[in-house]
Specification:
The complex is a heterodimer of chains A (336) and B (505).
Chain A: H1 2-28, H2 35-60, H3 68-85, H4 90-113, H5 119-133, H6 161-168, E1 170-173, E2 175-180, H7 181-199, H8 201-211, H9 213-218, H10 223-249, H11 260-270, H12 282-301, H13 309-335
Antiparallel strand pairs in A: 1-2
Chain B: E1 6-15, E2 18-28, E3 32-38, H1 44-51, E4 59-64, E5 67-68, H2 74-80, E6 82-85, H3 99-103, H4 105-109, H5 119-133, H6 148-160, E7 166-170, H7 178-193, E8 197-201, H8 205-211, E9 214-219, E10 222-227, H9 234-242, E11 259-267, E12 275-280, E13 284-288, H10 295-302, E14 310-315, E15 318-320, H11 325-330, E16 333-336, H12 340-343, H13 351-356, E17 364-365, E18 368-369, H14 371-385, H15 401-413, E19 419-423, H16 431-443, E20 449-454, H17 457-463, E21 466-471, E22 474-480, H18 486-493, H19 498-502
Parallel strand pairs in B: 3-8, 3-9, 6-7, 7-8, 13-20, 13-21, 16-19, 19-20
Antiparallel strand pairs in B: 1-2, 1-4, 4-5, 9-10, 11-12, 11-14, 14-15, 17-18, 21-22
Helix pairs in contact in B: 6-7, 15-16
Classes of the chains: A mainly alpha (336), B alpha/beta (505).
Chain lengths: 336, 505
Amino acid sequence: MNDRLLDFSIKYGFLILLFGLIIFFSLTTNGFASARSAAFVLQSVALTGILALGVTCTLVVDGFDLSIGAVATSALMLSAYSMVILEHSALVAVLLCLSMGALVGLINGLLIVRFRVPDLLATLGMMFLLIGLQRIPTQGNSIATGMSLGNGVVAEGTFSKAFLWIGRHRFDLVIERLLPMPVVIFLLIAVFIWLFLGFTRHGRMMYAIGSNERAAGLVGVQVNNYKIAAYMISGVTASIGGILLAARLGRGDIASGNNLLLDSVAAALIGFAVLGAARPNAFGTAIGALFVGILLQGMTMMNAPYYTQDFVKGAVLVSALVFTFYLSSRRTGAGR
Amino acid sequence: MPAHALEVRGLLKSFGRNSVLKGIDLTLDYGSVTVLMGANGAGKSTLVKVVCGHHSADGGELHLAGKPFSPLNAADAIAKGVVTVHQSIDDGVIPDLDVANNLMLDRLAEPGSGFFVREGKLRREAQRVADSMGIEVDLKARVADLAVADRQMIAIARAMARKPEVLILDEPTSSLSATEANRLFALIDRLRDAGVAILYISHRMSDIRRIADRILCMRDGLISGAFEDKPLDYEAAVTAMLGHSMLEVDFTVQRASVAVIELQDLQLTVEAQAINLAAHDGEVVAVIGLLGSGKSRLAEVIYGINNAVSGQMRIDGKQYKPVSVQHAVQQGVFMSPKDRATNAVIPDFDIANNMTLPFLSAFSNGSFLNGKRLRRRARDMNQQLGVVCQSETDAIGTLSGGNQQKVMIARWLMEPCRVLLLDEPFQGVDIGARRDIGKHIRASANGRATLVFMSEIDEAIEIADRIVVMAEGSINGEYLNENIELGSLISDISGSETALSGQAQ
């Protein structure tokens, strides 16, 4: 009986907590339980959610990508540079950002697989490098139309309408202009990664690598290629996050996106606890991101001050980790 | 001085339901080298771990220098005078420090050794220790830059700095070359003369001949033989270690038919003699030999993990030169590796996913897996091999060792292949599962050549049409599995004749 209770709580505890929170906030605050508020929560987690889905892929192969935040801000600066200073079209800017993300992922992967640099260190180094690199072309300044480029030249390009549309368009759903574009992209990526990891043979082999790399190699899985692919997926999703951020802000703001790394890693790790998976998974990651978003939204509506937010996120993360690692280890112990 | 340095009486140890030591009795004497032999899973390492304090005994008594001895942990065992040098050398040294610091490390760690390091004194004492051990390396060299043998010597010298009663060496020569090993033996001679009781664990017959004063053999958690009278009877020792409780062989031996895989002048290491071997359609060939005889190396060469020094391989008459595991699998060469837990099992996966891992594309439409088809196939294989489980979605970790191994073998029986390599398929497998696996391998043997790499004679006789004996990286004998003369087989395994004459010392 006790075992079954433990099993049940490991499996559904987190989801029950999530629904409990939703009901609690709906009852205690005015306006939490509304479509607008739901769309707002989704919008607030879309960016971190997208990055978190990428980092989930690296966690699946037992790796880690610390460079996602820096890739996102680099994409932000690159898109601004491309459109405002080089006066490219939206399409060129987007393609540039995506290939930058893929290239960074490829380099991360090669550092880890070919040069045997431990994943945390390789991606930490890459993070540093990118944070520095994105500031060099503009001498550390933010990019906006009308900025001075020296020699009396002024940047004349603008963020194209099409580009801003990616970040700002809202689709009608029941209510007019309800669903923001980034949310749609987040949901699309979530479904894609969920299908890829859970239902394709490639995803299955990536999980095998994460669980026992040696054994996977000995059955003929191309371990190195899959690891590199995981980092490339992570790089591309991070650059998508950066593009959305740029399109929302409408300028190449050097200081934005600081929290992206921590928030998205937290979402992916919280995801371990969802459905008792005890391993990285796309569904859990999306729920983890939502969980944080709902909690913050509800607390904001209850007038909790903004500076408590990081504390709350940290507390959720730590409890989710205890939940995952301590309870699941007890479960495997009991199952024997 | 008490009669024995270490005395063990009725030592018991089990892990869960699995009893590993079933009443070990042994003694170690001062100034004598006792060699402990035993096949994989015999319980050697558990015995060592109990004596050196990693595990606590479930029953039985230990006496060290006449006094009761029950170490609380590894540090306590060392303090009381039992020092162990483990198989992996870097456990015993700090690679980033220089030789002098390594030799003096225990002195530095002693309480009350002072806050500041006195460099001059440290170097003088290190020099003294090095001289007394016959270590001739630059004391300022970083240990990581030294040769393996030197690192090993330093690990032993460090151990000796504590003046132990008993020194345990766990396969110390497994990564040493012949000349390096000779230097180690000289050191061991010196320690023996100084009166230390030494327990030396090894499979290498050449080592054992060189240094053993007496031999103890372990098998299935018991001491199965003790050899003390000179000259030592090495062949009897190998028999006691491997055992040959004859089993009924209830199949007709296949005669050689069409060759599927041929190895021609294949040289595994620079020192080894070339191997010529063919395995035929429908035939099961057992390649037997002690640990380090090169049989795993041979399996790895055929599977594309390692390269041979020279020579070539052919499959169905065509040149076969695998560059990677994927390449080997594509050409129909499958291998189930030894050490299931590290090399084969995916612990996070259930039975079905573990089993189907190599052939996922057979269960996919495009990239998408067909879960139903995959599970149905796993269920079929479970039935064929008699995997005891509730369903094919059970976590792999809930199965017993034997059933896990059935899943690992089933993995490679799913698709037809040309050459099936099984490295130690019966490692950590109970007798029932061993029968099931063996029967299935034989039943499915047609259409491929099967090479089974193992160290136990009875297992080979149970399963094989032909038995090939390896020693020192080359083939030392070949037998059709009919009325085998065990004496000759055993002397081939211990490498007595050809290997010794081939290896002029």
